[in-house]
């Protein structure tokens, strides 16, 4: 069995802590068994390793999130990088084409697609590992799904409705689906044996290859990657699952919860206040999450989420928080906080001016972790000034390397190659000025410090 772990979300439902570069699966708002902060993807990866499935897993991830994957997960996981977000159908077929073309996976191999934002137990992965393949092969089904047995008539989840004459077995045949019904309808569905849809899809690789052929799409990974922007922008559920016959579902009796929205995520948080803030004693079922140094006080508010980050401030009723995606789509600004393989940066100020000619000013605070370095790079549209506010390091500028320390001011004109390496943890205030300040204005020459040293000494 091969696993495709979907980790390319846009980060809108957990705004403002999440953004396109730091999606919800990377937020360390859960805790592990030792009480240490843990992200969704770290939790799932740990469970995959325990189940013996991690080595057979490929992670489907968006371009801005590659660095975060390798920073948070050990073992250098295999990744399939989506050139752009085109929903789950495109991500799954690209990953399947990668397995077929690059990994030479046989066409009769079982593929299991897992979402990243589910909170569940180890038994969930054991069920997939031990039951999915034999049931798929014995029934000849095109698709196998996993359905959690409901503990309440929740309106938050989609439901898998089995066929009424489906005999009680380890599996049931699927009749139809119902997305987030009202409570009364959910009760009626549960009486018919309906299950919460866990978003897991299992199939033989040849099934998906045949779907690609039907749609006139290539099964070759390179060809599919080259034409990625033309792939249908649809969910896998809509494009494939709902239109496929002969589907079965495996019931799962353990704990399962979708953590993709604030109201479900806060149910699993071990404390009501995260970060610099306080809540009055009369607040009920309210959570405060603050990433800023500025204190936030909450008084007399019930059933709410207050979330604060460099990207913005959210105050929402928990039930209404599921609708935040529509509002966030109207927010037009760059990510104000990003984590990179070398550390992190936070935007402190960003201003645009039109006179005497159009130009921008951007001020960031960066932390480069000890032993890490920026790439040897140059910019064509901006000048930079770096002020070292803490730590020691090495500074490469146009072929020369020098030592730097707290208090140093470094000038980096546009078009000049440069890099910096932290000997101790290094904190920097960086000021950029130019006609267009975008992350894409980077020409990377070398990534490894050893290559930078060799170039500068040569």
Automatic annotation (TrEMBL):
<dbReference type="InterPro" id="IPR001538">
    <property type="entry name" value="Man6P_isomerase-2_C"/>
</dbReference>
<dbReference type="Pfam" id="PF01050">
    <property type="entry name" value="MannoseP_isomer"/>
</dbReference>
<dbReference type="GO" id="GO:0004475">
    <property type="term" value="F:mannose-1-phosphate guanylyltransferase (GTP) activity"/>
</dbReference>
<dbReference type="InterPro" id="IPR005835">
    <property type="entry name" value="NTP_transferase_dom"/>
</dbReference>
<dbReference type="InterPro" id="IPR029044">
    <property type="entry name" value="Nucleotide-diphossugar_trans"/>
</dbReference>
<dbReference type="InterPro" id="IPR011051">
    <property type="entry name" value="RmlC_Cupin_sf"/>
</dbReference>
<dbReference type="GO" id="GO:0005976">
    <property type="term" value="P:polysaccharide metabolic process"/>
</dbReference>
<keyword id="KW-0808">Transferase</keyword>
<dbReference type="GO" id="GO:0009298">
    <property type="term" value="P:GDP-mannose biosynthetic process"/>
</dbReference>
<keyword id="KW-0548">Nucleotidyltransferase</keyword>
<protein>
    <submittedName>
        <fullName>Mannose-1-phosphate guanylyltransferase</fullName>
        <ecNumber>2.7.7.13</ecNumber>
    </submittedName>
</protein>
<feature type="domain" description="Mannose-6-phosphate isomerase type II C-terminal">
    <location>
        <begin position="340"/>
        <end position="445"/>
    </location>
</feature>
<dbReference type="InterPro" id="IPR014710">
    <property type="entry name" value="RmlC-like_jellyroll"/>
</dbReference>
<dbReference type="Pfam" id="PF00483">
    <property type="entry name" value="NTP_transferase"/>
</dbReference>
<feature type="domain" description="Nucleotidyl transferase">
    <location>
        <begin position="3"/>
        <end position="270"/>
    </location>
</feature>
<dbReference type="InterPro" id="IPR051161">
    <property type="entry name" value="Mannose-6P_isomerase_type2"/>
</dbReference>
């Amino acid at each position: 069995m091969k696993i495709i772990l979907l980790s390319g979300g846009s980060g809108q439902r957990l705004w403002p802590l999440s953004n396109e570069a730091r999606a919800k699966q990377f937020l360390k708002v859960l805790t592990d068994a030792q009480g240490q902060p843990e992200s969704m993807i770290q939790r799932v990866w740990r469970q995959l390793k325990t189940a013996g499935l991690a080595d057979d897993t490929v992670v489907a991830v968006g371009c801005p999130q590659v660095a975060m994957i390798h920073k948070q997960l050990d073992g250098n996981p295999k990744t399939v990088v989506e050139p752009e977000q085109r929903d789950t159908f495109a991500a799954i077929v690209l990953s399947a084409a990668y397995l077929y073309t690059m990994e030479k996976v046989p066409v009769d191999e079982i593929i299991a697609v897992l979402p990243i934002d589910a909170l569940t137990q180890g038994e969930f992965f054991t069920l997939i590992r031990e039951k999915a393949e034999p049931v798929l092969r014995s029934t000849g089904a095109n698709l196998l799904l996993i359905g959690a047995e409901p503990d309440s008539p929740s309106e938050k989840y989609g439901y898998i409705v089995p066929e009424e004459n489906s005999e009680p077995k380890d599996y049931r045949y699927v009749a139809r689906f119902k997305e987030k019904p009202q409570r009364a309808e959910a009760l009626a569905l549960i009486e018919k044996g309906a299950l919460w849809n866990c978003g897991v899809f299992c199939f033989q690789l040849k099934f998906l290859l045949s779907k690609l052929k039907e749609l006139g799409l290539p099964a070759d990974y390179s060809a599919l990657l080259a034409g990625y922007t033309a792939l249908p922008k649809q969910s896998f559920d809509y494009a494939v699952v709902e239109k496929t016959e002969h589907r079965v579902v495996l019931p799962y009796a353990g704990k399962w919860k979708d953590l993709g929205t604030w109201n479900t995520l806060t149910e699993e948080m071990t404390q009501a206040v995260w970060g610099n803030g306080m809540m009055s004693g009369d607040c009920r079922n309210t959570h405060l999450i603050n990433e800023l140094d500025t204190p936030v006080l909450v008084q007399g508010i019930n059933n709410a989420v207050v979330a604060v980050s460099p990207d913005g401030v959210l105050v929402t009723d928990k039930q209404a928080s599921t609708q935040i995606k529509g509002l966030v789509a109207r927010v037009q600004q760059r990510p104000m906080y990003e984590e990179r393989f070398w550390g992190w940066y936070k935007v402190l100020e960003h201003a645009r001016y039109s006179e005497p000619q159009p130009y921008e000013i951007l001020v960031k605070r960066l932390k480069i972790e000890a032993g890490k370095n920026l790439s040897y790079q140059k910019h064509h549209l901006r000048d930079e000034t770096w002020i070292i506010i803490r730590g020691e390091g090495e500074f490469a500028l146009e072929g020369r390397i020098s030592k730097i320390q707290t208090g140093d001011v470094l000038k980096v004109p546009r078009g000049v190659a440069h890099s910096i390496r932290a000997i101790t943890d290094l904190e920097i205030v960086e000021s950029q000025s130019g006609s267009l300040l975008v992350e894409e204005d980077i020409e990377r020459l070398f990534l490894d410090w050893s290559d930078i040293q060799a170039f500068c000494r040569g």
